[in-house]
């Protein structure tokens, strides 16, 4: 039986009378990089916000680390939803220090995460002068501060240039080797196909496909087939 680090069962979310997420049942294997795919507006971010406690589901259940979801489980998760919230007048170290103090973590952990995201040599450069890629990596560093078992990244390559995308891709690919499971949402298939080993495809607020992929699979062809309603699981 697959060891699942997180599972959702028939999640539903309404905004007023509009049903944004309809019976989403995800299964995230421990040690995987799980790609949550779908067109813009498909319900990916809404689903991730329910998993991270930013939104409450109207129906359904979330099982985190083998237990019904509680706020205590957030201590075992790291999240980057949308753009990272950074203090532009502070350095990378100072931004991380703010979060480390809030979490009661030692300064030594800051050096660890700066090395992981390859920002240990930026010195006293203010984050307002960072490139978009550097800001995204700092956002991931903040998410890694608490040594999470599960890292949730929502469209992390948005706005990045090709070099930034490549650097972030290499970084994400390294996480399972560090004992970190990743959920990565995206609508850009070319990027995701080089990173993920499991996928879920959401369209119109519904999970249309879920499964393990292999390197020989044409992810774009599968995606188009599923989103157009030819194939459903």
From TrEMBL:
Its keywords, alphabetically, are: ATP-binding, Nucleotide-binding, Transport
InterPro entries linked: AAA+_ATPase, ABC_Gallidermin_ATP-bd, ABC_transporter-like_ATP-bd, P-loop_NTPase
PROSITE patterns documented for this protein: ABC_TRANSPORTER_2
GO molecular function terms noted in the UniProt entry: ATP binding; ATP hydrolysis activity
Domain ABC transporter as annotated: residue spans: 6-229
UniProt record similarity statement: Belongs to the ABC transporter superfamily.
Q: Which NCBIfam families match?
A: galliderm_ABC (TIGR03740)
Put simply, this protein is called Lantibiotic ABC transporter ATP-binding protein
């Amino acid at each position: 039986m697959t060891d699942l680090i997180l599972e959702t069962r028939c999640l539903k979310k309404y905004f007023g009378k509009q049903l944004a997420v309809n019976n989403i049942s995800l299964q995230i294997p421990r040690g995987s990089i799980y790609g949550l795919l779908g067109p813009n507006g498909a319900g990916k971010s809404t689903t991730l916000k329910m998993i991270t406690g930013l939104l409450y589901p109207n129906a359904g259940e979330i099982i985190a680390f083998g237990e019904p979801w509680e706020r205590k489980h957030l201590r075992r998760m790291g999240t980057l939803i949308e753009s990272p919230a950074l203090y532009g007048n502070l350095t990378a170290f100072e931004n991380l220090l703010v979060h480390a103090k809030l979490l009661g973590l030692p300064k030594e952990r800051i050096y660890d995460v700066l090395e992981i995201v390859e920002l240990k040599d930026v010195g006293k450069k203010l984050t307002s002068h960072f490139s978009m890629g550097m800001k995204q990596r700092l956002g991931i560093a903040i998410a890694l501060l608490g040594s999470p078992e599960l890292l949730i990244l929502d469209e992390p390559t948005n706005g990045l240039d090709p070099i930034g995308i490549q650097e972030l891709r290499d970084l994400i690919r390294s996480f399972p080797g560090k004992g970190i499971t990743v959920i990565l949402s995206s609508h850009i298939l070319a990027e995701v196909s080089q990173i993920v080993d499991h996928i879920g495809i959401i369209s119109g607020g519904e999970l249309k496909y879920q499964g393990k992929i292999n390197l020989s699979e044409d992810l774009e062809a599968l995606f188009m087939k599923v989103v157009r309603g030819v194939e459903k699981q």
